[in-house]
Specification:
alpha/beta; Rossmann fold; 7 strands; about 40% helix; globular; binds S-adenosylmethionine
Length: about 270
């Protein structure tokens, strides 16, 4: 069994910690989602878009490649530097495209700045800050503009989290994930309460790339080592959990279990025109 070298992992922010693994295992899916959202928006080149909690930047990069003026914001300086580097490597950049450290709950943009805004797996992590973030988005979007928000459709909507929670059940130590997510009706209600109109939520599922069973711990450790439910286990229980994750991954590999899919929901909403 692979050991888990937690001692070598020093970053405090789980999103920063998992940058290389996110690029390998998550970004192929978030890039597909970004393209779906941008296709649905049908924005003309030069339109001004906001990517809230941009992470490694799949939506921002895709938007810039389409000639959209994209502003990526994230609270992580490391991720913002990463996006800035990616943007700098593009053959051409729409004027005004930027990547900035900023809190979704305190946007530094004037009112009515954007033609569209996107939150891909970000607002879902803001817990009690969700209403503030949605009000801020309403403020910076122009009348008639669209907001699209993507959430997991369940607390283990991400295959990476599901393998962990299933493995925890396998060893008789079910763990509660410390994530906020909004059920479809809660997400609609939060958007309506914030003042958005024409709110619609639709399910979205996608196939995930998945590492070989022998690599699953090494590849996914950055996603789980910082999670409080994992840290609460004794070293012996952690080892059992990791063995169970490897068994789960092997069952996927042999076809005994179906490949894990992402279960998400996409909400779209408009800013009222009057
Ligand atoms: C799960 S990642 C999603 C990243 C990206 N949107 C994607 O699709 O891959 C959530 C991101 O939200 C960022 N984040 C968390 N709290 C934030 C806040 N208050 N304001 C802005 N970004 C935040 C994290 O740093 C992280 O990059």
């Amino acid at each position: 069994m692979n050991s888990t070298p937690t001692a070598t992992l020093t970053a405090e922010d789980p999103f920063e910690l998992s940058l290389p693994a996110t690029t390998r295992w998550v970004e192929p899916v978030t890039r597909m989602i970004a393209d779906e959202l941008l296709d649905a928006s049908a924005l003309p080149p030069g339109a001004h878009v906001l990517d809230v909690g941009a992470g490694t930047g799949p939506l921002t990069i895709s938007a810039a490649l389409r000639g959209l003026r994209a502003n990526a914001i994230d609270t992580s300086p490391l991720l913002i530097n990463h996006i800035a580097g990616r943007l700098a490597g593009l053959p051409s950049l729409p004027e005004g495209t930027s990547a900035e450290v900023m809190d979704a709950m305190a946007l530094k943009y004037p009112d009515d700045s954007f033609d569209a805004a996107f939150s891909v797996f970000t607002v879902m992590f803001l817990g009690p800050g969700v209403p503030t973030a949605l009000s801020e988005l309403l403020r910076v979007l122009r009348p008639g503009a669209t907001l699209q928000v993507v959430h997991w459709a369940a607390v283990d909507g991400s295959p990476l989290i599901r393998i962990l929670s299933e493995a925890a059940s396998d060893i008789g130590a079910p763990i509660e994930m410390p994530f906020e997510y909004l059920r479809s009706e809660e997400l609609s209600a939060a958007l309506s309460t914030a003042g958005f109109v024409d709110v619609e939520v639709r399910p979205y599922t996608a196939d995930y790339p998945f590492p070989a069973a022998e690599d699953v711990l090494q590849e996914f450790q950055s996603f789980y080592v910082k999670l409080p439910p994992y840290r609460a286990l004794s070293p012996a229980r952690r080892a059992e959990l990791e063995e169970a994750m490897t068994r789960r991954a092997r069952a996927v590999e042999t076809g005994e279990r179906s490949r894990p899919i992402l279960r998400a929901q996409i909400a779209s909403a408009q800013v009222p025109t009057a």
